[in-house]
Amino acid sequence: MAGPRPPRFLLVFDFDETIVDENSDDSVVRGRALPEPLRQSPQGGGGYNEHMRRVLAFLGEQGVRPAELRAAYENIPLAPGMAELFQLLSKHQELFELVLISDANTFGIEAKLRAAGARSLFRKVFSNPASLDRRGVLTLGPYHSHKCLRCPANMCKAKILAEYLAERAREDVEFQRVLYVGDGANDFCPAGTLRAADVAFPRKGYPMHRLIQESQEKQPGAFQAAVVPWESAVEVARYLQELLRKKC
């Protein structure tokens, strides 16, 4: 007897300022006194991951318990319309395969997705590993190493996406379309690898959107995917509903 048909679409989500409406790292440190060296985060390169490792270590040393950190992540508001988008996707899980690729951390992402009742929608979560050490301090590591010059040293989302598509292809799962929902500069790299049949959903006015626009102006046609900017994830849901109506 034939098994279930594989999903037709791969839907890739970023986390910070995409699924949730703010940067989760900012949410965790809000209202907490940090020493001067930890108040300013580094710009560019791979230093941000290392910076957050030091921040989380400092919070642990100051007695901030894992339950407090978990609550901070759980209380981050979802982006506008994201709950409605998740409701739609929960009704069509046979058609959409969901993965999350984020430069945040696994501890915070898992906490928020479970609090939002959305964890079961995602087949995989790719993020910087975070776990509790013997003292109960949240420790953070880099996701991987890579050779991409555009991305921070700890994570290239394009590499993660390419490896995931290759893994699924080996399992005889081929997607008609890849749909990418994001906001940041590090989402532009994987979005640039999408094909003409695919769709990029950049959050309107955020770095990913601006970089796509600049790319289209400098090299018309170089960015191949269809571009659907959004302010509310309800707009993403409407596009997906139309996609399902067309059955393509």
Q: How are the SSEs ordered, and which strands pair?
A:
Elements: E1 9-13, H1 24-29, H2 36-39, H3 47-61, H4 66-74, H5 82-91, E2 96-101, H6 106-115, E3 122-126, E4 130-132, E5 138-140, H7 157-170, E6 177-182, H8 185-191, E7 199-202, H9 207-218, E8 226-227, H10 233-246
Parallel strand pairs: 1-2, 1-6, 2-3, 6-7, 7-8
Antiparallel strand pairs: 4-5
Binding site for substrate: 25, 103
Family: Belongs to the HAD-like hydrolase superfamily. PHOSPHO family.
Active site: 14, 16
What does this structure look like?
The chain is α/β, with parallel strands linked by helices. It has a domain at 9-22 and 77-131 and 143-246: Rossmann fold (3-Layer(aba) Sandwich). It has helices at 24-29, 36-39, 47-61, 66-74, 82-91, 106-115, 157-170, 185-191, 207-218, 233-246, and strands spanning 9-13, 96-101, 122-126, 130-132, 138-140, 177-182, 199-202, 226-227. Helix 5 packs parallel to helix 10 (233-246), helix 7 (157-170) packs parallel to helix 8 (185-191) and helix 8 (185-191) crosses helix 9. The longest helix is centred in the first third of the chain and has 15 residues, at 47-61. The protein is globular, with a radius of gyration of 18 Å. The two termini are 26 Å apart.
How do you describe this structure in short?
The protein has 248 residues and is of the alpha/beta class.
Q: What is the end-to-end distance?
A: 26 Å
Average pLDDT across residues?
92
The CATH architecture of the domain at 9-22 and 77-131 and 143-246 would be 3-Layer(aba) Sandwich
What structural class is derived from the secondary structure elements?
Answer: alpha/beta
Radius of gyration: 18 Å
Order of helices and strands: EHHHHHEHEEEHEHEHEH
Low-pLDDT regions: none
Overall shape: it is: globular
Give the strand tally: 8
Going across the biggest sheet, name each strand in turn.
Answer: 3-2-1-6-7-8
Keywords: Hydrolase, Magnesium, Metal-binding
Binding site for Mg(2+): 14, 16, 183
Protein name: PHOP1 phosphatase
Active site: 14 (nucleophile), 16 (proton donor)
